[in-house]
Amino acid sequence: MIILASASPRRRELLEQIGEEFVVKVSEAEEVKSANSPLELAEKNAKLKALAVAKEHREYPVLGADTIVVLDGKIYGKPKDEQDARQMLKSFSGRVHEVLTGICLVKDEKIYSKTVRTEVTFGEMTEKEIEEYIATKEPMDKAGAYAIQGKAARFIKCINGSFSNVVGLPLHELNELLKEAKLKNRV
């Protein structure tokens, strides 16, 4: 059993997919907005989230995660409004960007963490396609204004790296952290 320090329904679905037993305790940690690099930022925020919940719940290991989207060194979070989503999607059209997810597992006051990077290539999108996608409301609560596992899948030309990372939780790397922390039947 682990505690997931996240309100993300996508992270819950991914943990359910691999049969991991968990409960959700949403972290109230204040995310930092800057670090030496986007990679460091994702890992730092994942640690802050996990540690905040671990202070209150020491009975089980706590998992925190933070996903950010990066293009040309600029970090793209969740869009503020439809115009912001429109600008993000136009920026990604026909280009390659990175999705970084920091994951942190806190067990017995010990910290296990890593950050996973995946390159995502969007095909060219027409303005009409962007407008139709925004009209679905799917982009509004997603980093980078899209869900690779949702309706935006039709715009994704290719990915280089972990698909589950782009969804919000890199499952292979999580499994490696769970093994490193010597949690349940893992070798």
How many structural domains in the coordinates?
Answer: 1
For this structure, the CATH topology is: Maf protein
Q: Strand portion, in percent?
A: 25-35%
Largest sheet: 7 strands, mixed
Helix-strand topology string? EHEHEEHEEHEHH
- The tally of beta strands, per DSSP, is 7
Alpha-carbon Rg, integer: 17 Å
Structural class: alpha/beta
Distance from N terminus to C terminus (CA atoms, Å) equals 17 Å
Per DSSP, the total helix count is: 6
- Uncertain stretches of 5 or more adjacent residues: none
Overall helicity: 25-40%
CATH class: Alpha Beta
Write up what this structure looks like:
This protein is an alpha/beta fold and 187 residues long. It has a single domain, classed as Maf protein, CATH 3.90.950. The chain is 34% helix and 26% strand. Helix 1 links the parallel strand 1 and strand 2. Helix 3 (82-92) packs across helix 4 (127-135). The mean pLDDT is 94.
Q: What can be said about this structure in brief?
A:
It is built from six helices and seven strands; from the N terminus they run E-H-E-H-E-E-H-E-E-H-E-H-H. It has 187 residues and is α/β, with parallel strands linked by helices.
Secondary structure layout:
Elements: E1 2-4, H1 9-17, E2 22-24, H2 38-56, E3 62-71, E4 74-76, H3 82-92, E5 96-107, E6 110-122, H4 127-135, E7 156-160, H5 163-167, H6 171-180
Parallel strand pairs: 1-2, 1-3
Antiparallel strand pairs: 3-4, 3-5, 5-6, 6-7
Helix pairs in contact: 3-4
